[in-house]
Amino acid sequence: MENSLPSEPPVTLLLSILNTNISASDVLTILICIGVVVLFIVCSAIISSSENALFSLTPIQVDEITQDESRTSECIKYLLNHPKHLLATILISNTFVNISIVLVLTVVIGLIFDFSQNHLVGFLIEVVLVTFLLVLFGEVMPKMYASQNNARVARFVSIPMFTLSKLLKPFVLLLVNSTSIIDKRVTKKGHVLSVEELTHAIDITNEEETPKEEKVILKSIVQFGNISVKQIMRQRPDVTAIRSDTPFRQLLMKINDWGYSRVPVYSDNLDNIQGVLYIKDLLPQLHEDDQFQWTSLLRKPYFVPESKKIDDLLKEFQSKRVHLAIVVDEFGGTQGIVTMEDILEEIFGEINDEFDDDEIFYSRIDDNTYVFEAKIAINDMCKFMGIDLSVFEQARQDADTVGGMLLELQGEMPKQGDVIVFENYKFIIESADKRRIKRIKVEVMHEQDSKA
Fold first, then answer.
1. 349 within some domain
2. Who has greater pLDDT, 70 or 338?
3. CA-based nearest residue to 295, from 238, 236, 240, 251
4. What is the pTM of this model?
């Protein structure tokens, strides 16, 4: 067929489509056109490389380049201060140059070859080959070089790009103004990224660019606003507090043993919090005897509901200059306490000071087996295991600790050795008494294990 690709060797095929009737004037035209094409490809390379070079400059590089008062530094400052105008200049000038290259090459190819008998070969040469040359020499190679030598290229292209932006100003303004209308409409609609999307974006980042430790912190920041006080507070049974009628000398002994800087003070029971004692307020009174009315030093307690989000609480801690809050339920009963340290630990992980006990709440046996104290928060267990908190959202109901979640799942107090399975996780009760669960082992089951 006429349009089918012949089976001759490439060299023979090219010789068969060469135009043998080229005159001297045609040769001169071809040489001039080739020179023009080379010039245009150089222009395309300069324009394409300017985008990568200028927009990849770091603040330090910009400072170094713009320290002098040269024409180059002034052009770079102008271009970086008008990024939309720069992009519009690049797009418009590159379009003009590429169209010119295609038109001139079409003339050259038409003079050199005769495609009247091989239209398909003509299509491959005029479209595919020309596009390949344009992309390779006008886009890919210049951009790769500019990425590796951005400062040098930025200095080289600054004056040409500044000149082009002035010459093409009417077209640039038209393009910028027309796209700004679209930008405003897109901004109004806006796509709000969900926590899941942001977390997934962090997961797929390159390990070299973002180390594992930084990923953990970034994930904690993303999820920070969704965590409630109830999830991180110290539960009521673990709260260290002191009765308001405790003798002064006994108070000093207890404070010395505890090592805390702030202690809640109650009368009768924890539901009647009278205030918070700051240990630094006791320092001037150390010489006093048991008759000293130390309750006069109490500061007003700060109460927060257990449903409050910790990002809001952090702002309140900062504005009110407090570090400890009493967590209450809807009836005003004390559920626990939360401190500034508890909030910061949600981002940076466990923070230990010289007074913290080296109490181990969890340990890793292997990649699929963990041991936890039952009173550990579900949130902390998920962090240590590297799984999403939503996995246990249905199982936890109103529970905040792992032990409380297992009670919800079992419906009764489990005994030592009992096994509770939820999804792909097996919980084995390692230690328990009649009143509570003490220690559990968690095994991550693979799909075949859960089916078995």
1. no
2. 338
3. 251
4. 0.43
